[in-house]
Design brief:
The structure holds two protein chains of two kinds.
Chain A lengths: L12 E9 L2 E10 L5 E5 L6 H8 L7 E5 L5 H4 L3 E4 L13 H9 L9 H4 L2 H16 L15 H14 L4 E5 L7 H16 L3 E5 L3 H7 L2 E6 L1 E7 H4 L2 H8 L11
Parallel strand pairs in A: 3-7, 3-8, 5-6, 6-7
Antiparallel strand pairs in A: 1-2, 1-4, 8-9
Helix pairs in contact in A: 3-5, 3-6, 5-6
Chain B lengths: L8 H11 L5 H13 L5 H26 L3 H24 L7 H25 L4 H23 L8 H8 L7 H20 L1 H9 L1 H6 L4 H18 L9 H15 L3 H25 L5 H19 L5 H23 L9
Helix pairs in contact in B: 2-13, 3-4, 3-8, 3-11, 3-12, 3-13, 4-5, 4-6, 4-11, 4-12, 5-6, 5-11, 8-11, 12-13, 12-14, 13-14
Classes of the chains: A alpha/beta, B mainly alpha.
Chain lengths: 258, 349
C-alpha cells in the first residue's frame, strides 16, 4: 500500500456511510468522493438524507456504519479547513447578535473563545474585526454590519452566514440550502463568488433543491433518495430518468432501504 | 450557639421597626425601609442584603444564557426537583442523629436532585420522541410530587428543627445567619465569574449549536456547565428566595433585559441590574416587615419590572408596537382614501 500525502486525497470521501434515527434508516450505504476545486450539488426529495449526509460527515450524527474522510483524515483532524453553513431553520434569527458578531464567530481561533472581548483588545483583535467586516462588504452587507440579524431580510441573513463561511478561509465549504430565501439576483452574485473560490482551489458541497440551477451552476451532483441514485457530472446525474426515479412516490420511504 | 438563632435578620428588623414606632406607623415603615435600602440597617442586615443583591446579579447573568439557549424551563425543573433532595438530605442528617440544620448539606441534596432532573430531561428528549418541553414538564412536576412526599416523611422525625424546611420552599431571609449569607454570596459570585469567563463561547453555542459543533467547541460540556451554573444559582438562592421562586429570579430579569437590548453583552448587564434591583427592593422591604418573606417580595418586584418593561420598552414593548401599528394603519387608510376618490384638481398635493 502506498501512502499518499493528504493533499492528494479527496476533500471529502464517504465510505459506505449509513445513518438511522431511532432505528429508521435515513441514509443507506453512501459512498462518494468530492473532486477538489469543484462544486457539487446534493439533490433529492424531502427526507432523502441530504442534511443528514453533511451532519454525519462532520460527526454531528453517529453513523451506523461507514466513515467519512476529509483529505484522508477524520473530521476532527481537519475541521479547521472546513466551513459549514447550517440550514436557515436551525437558527434562532431573533438572537441578540449583530451581523458583524456572527461573522467574527467564523474567524475565531481556538483560544479566542475563552478570552472575553475586553481581554483580547489589541492588534490581533482589530485584525479579526477588519477581516470580518471585509467579508461582509464582499457580500454587499457592509452597511448592515452593526444591525441585529433579526432586522435583516432572509436573503441578507443567508449572506451573513456565507460571509461567516468566507471568514473561516476554509478549503471545503459544506452548505446546507445556502440559497433558501435568496432572490435570484443575489443568488447570481453568490454563485459567482463561490465559483471564484473554486477556481482558487476551494471545494464546495451544497445541499440544493432547485434542479434547474443544480444542472446549470454546479459541476457535479449527488442524487439521493435515502441511498445514492446517481453521482457524477451534474447534467448526467440529473437526467430526467434519474430524477424521476429519485422523486418517485415510495422511493424515498426510508423503511424500504433496510 | 445551638438554641440561640445567630443574630437573625428578623430580630434586627423588628428591632428597627419597633425603634421607629414612636412616629405614626405609615411613616415609620417607609422610614425604616429607606434606612435598610440605603444600607443603614445594621451590619447583619447589610450582609444579607448584599448577599441577596449578588444573588440577583448572578441570577440575571446566568439566566440570560439559559434563556438564550432556550433552556429557561430547565431552571424551573431544577428548582422543583431540589425539594426532594433537600428533604432527603434532611432525613439523612437527622437519621445520623444531628439536630441542627446544616445549610451546606441541604444545598448538596438540592444540587444532587437537580442534577438528576437535568440528566433525566436530557435522556428523555434524546432517546424518545417526546419534545423537550414535555420532558421538562414531566420531570419538573413529578419530581416536585416526590419532594412533597419526602417532605411529609420529615414530619415524622421528632425533635428535629424542620421549621426551616418549609421556609426553603418560598424563601425567607429572616432566619438567615451570617454564614448562610456568605455561603450564598460565594456561590453566586462563583457562578457569575464562570458565566463572564465563558461569555463568548456560551453565546456562540446558544446562537448556533451546529456551527459551534463544526468548529470543534465542546457543545455537550458547555450544556452541562450551563446547567451547573443554573444549579449553583438555584442552590445559592435556596434560602433567600426559595427553591420554587428562584426559577423566576433566573428568568424574569433575563426576559426584562431582552425587551430593552439587541445584543448579548448589554442584555447580560441589564439582566444583572434588574436582578440586583429586585433583590435589593424585595429583601430590604422584607427586612422591615416581619412576616413578609423575602422570596415572594423579590419575585414580585422582578415581575413588576418585567411587566412595566413589556409595556414601555422601545421596539419590543406593547405600547411602541401599538403606536407603530396605529401609524401604519393611518397611513394605509390615507392611501386607500386618496385612491378611492378622484384626485383633486391640480394633481400633486
Amino acid at each position: 500500500m502506498i501512502l499518499r500525502s493528504s493533499e492528494d486525497r479527496a476533500p471529502l470521501a464517504l465510505r459506505s456511510l449509513s445513518v438511522a434515527y431511532r432505528g429508521v434508516p435515513a441514509l443507506w450505504d453512501v459512498s462518494w468522493e468530492a473532486r477538489a476545486g469543484s462544486m457539487t450539488a446534493i439533490v433529492g426529495p424531502n427526507g432523502a438524507g441530504k442534511s443528514t449526509l453533511l451532519n454525519a460527515a462532520m460527526g454531528a450524527l453517529r453513523p451506523l456504519a461507514g466513515e467519512a474522510f476529509f483529505w484522508g483524515q477524520p473530521f476532527a483532524e481537519a475541521r479547521s479547513r472546513v466551513a459549514y453553513v447550517p440550514q436557515r431553520e436551525s437558527v434562532d434569527w431573533d438572537f441578540p447578535v449583530t451581523a458583524l458578531e456572527v461573522v467574527e464567530m467564523g474567524s475565531a481561533r481556538r483560544l479566542d473563545w475563552l478570552l472575553p472581548a475586553w481581554v483580547r483588545r489589541g492588534a490581533a483583535n482589530r485584525g479579526h474585526r477588519r477581516e470580518a467586516r471585509g467579508c461582509l462588504e464582499e457580500l454587499g452587507l457592509g452597511a448592515f454590519a452593526d444591525r441585529p440579524i433579526g432586522q435583516l431580510s432572509g436573503g441578507q441573513q443567508q449572506r451573513v452566514f456565507l460571509a461567516r463561511a468566507l471568514a473561516q478561509q476554509a478549503d471545503l465549504l459544506l452548505l446546507d440550502e445556502p440559497f433558501a430565501g435568496v432572490d435570484s439576483e443575489t443568488e447570481d452574485a453568490l454563485f459567482q463568488r463561490l465559483r471564484r473560490l473554486c477556481s482558487e482551489g476551494t471545494t464546495v458541497v451544497a445541499v440544493h433543491h432547485d434542479l434547474e440551477t443544480a444542472r446549470s451552476r454546479f459541476d457535479d451532483a449527488v442524487l439521493l433518495s435515502g441511498s445514492v441514485v446517481a453521482t457524477g457530472p451534474a447534467t448526467e446525474v440529473l437526467s430526467e430518468e434519474n430524477v424521476r426515479r429519485a422523486f418517485a412516490p415510495g422511493s424515498r420511504s426510508p423503511r424500504q432501504l433496510a | 450557639m445551638l438554641d440561640v438563632p445567630t443574630a437573625s435578620l428578623a430580630s434586627l428588623a423588628s428591632a428597627s421597626v419597633s425603634g421607629a414606632t414612636a412616629t405614626p406607623a405609615e411613616g415609620g415603615l417607609l422610614e425604616a425601609w429607606a434606612r435598610v435600602l440605603s444600607f443603614q440597617g445594621g451590619y447583619n442586615t447589610n450582609v444579607v442584603l448584599f448577599g441577596t443583591i449578588l444573588l440577583g446579579i448572578s441570577a440575571g447573568a446566568v439566566g440570560s444564557f439559559a434563556m438564550l439557549k432556550g433552556r429557561a424551563l430547565v431552571a424551573d425543573a431544577i428548582s422543583h426537583a431540589s425539594l426532594v433532595g433537600v428533604a432527603l438530605a434532611f432525613l439523612l442528617h437527622s437519621a445520623l442523629g444531628q439536630q441542627e440544620r446544616s445549610m451546606p448539606l441541604l444545598m448538596l441534596g438540592a444540587a444532587a436532585s437537580g442534577a438528576c432532573a437535568v440528566v433525566a430531561i436530557e435522556w428523555i428528549s434524546k432517546h424518545t420522541r417526546l419534545s423537550p418541553e414535555t420532558a421538562v414538564a414531566t420531570v419538573s412536576s413529578s419530581s416536585f410530587g416526590a419532594g412533597i412526599v419526602a417532605l411529609s416523611a420529615t414530619r415524622r422525625v421528632d425533635g428535629a428543627d424542620r421549621a426551616g424546611l418549609d421556609e426553603l420552599i418560598f424563601g425567607s431571609t429572616a432566619s438567615m445567619t451570617r454564614a448562610d449569607a456568605l455561603l450564598m454570596a460565594v456561590l453566586a459570585a462563583a457562578a457569575l465569574g464562570a458565566t463572564l469567563a465563558l461569555y463568548r463561547i456560551l453565546t456562540a453555542v446558544a446562537f448556533n449549536e451546529r456551527f459551534a459543533r463544526s468548529k470543534g467547541l465542546p457543545v455537550r460540556l458547555l450544556d452541562a456547565i450551563l446547567a451547573a451554573l443554573v444549579g449553583a444559582v438555584a442552590m445559592a438562592g435556596l434560602q433567600a428566595v426559595g427553591m420554587l421562586l428562584v426559577a423566576a429570579l433566573l428568568v424574569a430579569p433575563a426576559a426584562t433585559a431582552r425587551l430593552w437590548t439587541t445584543r448579548v453583552a448589554p442584555m447580560v448587564l441589564v439582566a444583572a441590574a434588574a436582578g440586583a434591583g429586585a433583590a435589593w427592593v424585595g429583601a430590604s422591604f422584607s427586612a422591615v416587615t416581619p412576616g413578609a418573606p423575602a422570596g415572594p417580595l423579590i419575585i414580585v418586584s422582578a415581575a413588576s419590572t418585567f411587566m412595566l418593561s413589556l409595556l414601555i420598552a422601545p421596539e419590543r414593548g406593547l405600547l411602541s408596537g401599538w403606536l407603530r401599528h396605529r401609524r401604519i394603519a393611518a397611513a394605509a387608510r390615507r392611501v386607500a382614501a386618496s385612491e378611492g376618490q378622484p384626485r383633486p384638481r391640480g394633481g400633486a398635493s
